Amino acid sequence: MKKAEKSGWVFCNDENSLLYGATGYILDLGLVSANVHFVLSDDGQALDRFLVMEYTKLIPATVKPPMNKEAFDAFMDLALQTRDYEWAKKLVQEYEQEKALPY
What we know:
With 103 residues, the chain is of the alpha+beta class. It contains two helices and five strands; from the N terminus they run βββββαα. The protein has a five-stranded antiparallel β-sheet with strand order 4-3-2-1-5. The N and C termini lie far apart (33 Å).
């Protein structure tokens, strides 16, 4: 991972981990690792796992996962816990748009 930022979103890229493909955000940065809170599994299920992972096992989350009910609930819980009300509003808008799509 080239550049890590606190609060940045990442995917677990450790093929030997049960969290492979999970989405999380960085809580703290170290010299060679980051403390990551994983909130969404690779299949869209809500998670609440905290791990310290080497930067080499993380990749920036540049693609948004689909906004299904489980993802919406997990992200909304996180937005409310962090009191990020602007993000909560955006989540509602994204979820409503996703529900309106024909697939």
